[in-house]
Design a protein that fits this description.
Distance between the termini: 12 Å
Largest sheet: 8 strands, mixed
Subcellular location: Cytoplasm
Number of strands: 8
Order of helices and strands: EHEHEHEHEHEHEHEHHHHHHHHH
Main location: cytoplasm
Strand content: 5-15%
CATH topology of the largest domain: N-(1-d-carboxylethyl)-l-norvaline Dehydrogenase, domain 2
EC number: 1.1.1.94
CATH superfamily of the largest domain: N-(1-d-carboxylethyl)-l-norvaline Dehydrogenase, domain 2
Number of helices: 16
Helix content: 40-55%
GO molecular function, one term: NAD binding
Keywords: Cytoplasm, Lipid biosynthesis, Lipid metabolism, NAD, NADP, Nucleotide-binding, Oxidoreductase, Phospholipid biosynthesis, Phospholipid metabolism
Length: 374
């Protein structure tokens, strides 16, 4: 698609607004749907979103509206950034206004609590749209850093490489680069699962444990993420890339991460009710714990980190006792398996190296991620 392509972004939270900025700065004609009229007016007239991106100047070309029909009118590509548990209802509202042949792109990192479905699956089930016209974006994407134009990268995934390339070209500018792959399962589950590990890291941080504990949980967390995703058909290499390891590092280590912040409050002794009350925006990791454990049990995947997070949320485990990296069914020493050999995985250094290669100029990523077409 050529510069000036008409696109819509649904959801004016921090990520939806930031992604609108990415698209405008990449040359697209963007209309952002904000549910509240006063927020839409502030974005359009003052070029600010003081609720979610304090201090950020938004591009002159960005328009916002509370009218869903106006936001979608003429849009060739629609990027969706609403809370995952509201996606299905929002899709029903959108359907009458979608253009024929539209591409829908999920910016969300969650699973539907009632069904365990990934966001692309919810879209495919709810709307009469070909799976090849659905894409998902994931990666180490802390909204405020990107809104400040700090360089980063992401992965656009679709069953159709052509669709992935169309979206990646739109979502590329001087500070944001998009790679592509066709592993939608791995890309989406990477974005979901890293949230759960980030909650665990926040808990141990709130308790006061140090870097050794956190490094152990991050490393073992990557194993859990990979085991789970591969059991559902993902390519293990995808979890070694931007949508897996890259996002895991960013979300676990940054105070800008909502999941990390929520975990830290839990570790400091706040109840789940108080944590939800304090968080200004949706914390996808908290909503995904139950569905992910249900899915893990269905495939016989052991997830001790996520299980202990669930116990902390339920109030059955003292945060100070969280130590999932010590959990084992046997007292006998075990071999360190970073990614199961049966999954075709490699040692952790190889994993780390591949992730950083994606950020190198012209670097080819693992698992089919490829640099954008120029």
């Amino acid at each position: 698609m050529h510069p000036g392509t008409r696109v819509a972004v649904l959801g004016a939270g921090s990520w939806g607004t930031t992604f609108s900025k990415i698209l405008v700065d990449g040359g697209a004609d963007v209309v952002l749907w904000a549910r509240r009229p006063e927020l839409a007016r502030e974005i359009t007239e003052a070029r600010r979103n003081s609720d979610y991106l304090s201090g950020i100047n938004l591009p002159v070309g960005l328009r916002a509206t509370p009218d869903l029909q106006k936001a979608l009118a003429g849009a060739k590509v629609v990027f969706i950034s609403v809370p995952s548990q509201t996606l299905r209802d929002n899709l029903v509202l959108m359907e009458p206004f979608l253009e024929p042949g539209v591409i829908l792109v999920s910016l969300m990192k969650g699973v539907e609590r009632s069904t365990g479905m990934r966001m692309s699956e919810v879209i495919a089930e709810t709307l009469p749209i070909a799976p090849e016209h659905i894409a998902a974006i994931s990666g180490p994407n802390l909204a405020l850093e990107i809104a400040r134009e700090q360089p980063t990268a992401a992965v656009v995934s679709s069953l159709s490489m052509e669709t992935a390339h169309i979206v990646a070209k739109l979502a590329t500018n001087r500070y944001f680069r998009s790679y592509v792959n066709t592993d939608v399962i791995g890309t989406e589950f990477g974005g979901v699962l890293k949230n759960l590990i980030a909650v665990a890291i926040g808990i141990v941080d709130g308790v006061g444990y140090g870097e050794n504990t956190k490094a152990s949980i991050i490393t073992r967390g990557l194993v859990e993420m990979t085991d789970f995703a591969v059991a559902y058909g993902a390519q293990p290499e995808t979890l070694s890339g931007l949508a897996g390891l890259g996002d895991l590092i960013a979300t676990c280590t940054s105070p800008l991460s909502r999941n990390n912040t929520a975990g830290r409050l839990l570790g400091q002794g706040y109840s789940i009710h108080d944590v939800v009350k304090q968080m200004q925006q949706t914390t996808e990791g908290l909503a995904s714990v139950g569905p992910i454990l249900d899915l893990a049990r269905a495939k016989g995947v052991d997830m001790p980190i996520v299980e202990q997070v669930r116990q902390v949320l339920d109030g059955t485990l003292n945060p100070r006792d969280i130590a999932p990296h010590l959990t084992t069914e046997s007292s006998e020493p075990q071999g360190e398996r970073n990614i199961d050999d049966s999954h075709g995985g490699t040692a952790f250094w190889g994993t780390l190296k591949r992730a950083f290669n994606q950020l190198r100029n012209g670097g080819r990523s693992a698992g089919g991620d490829r640099p954008r077409a120029l």
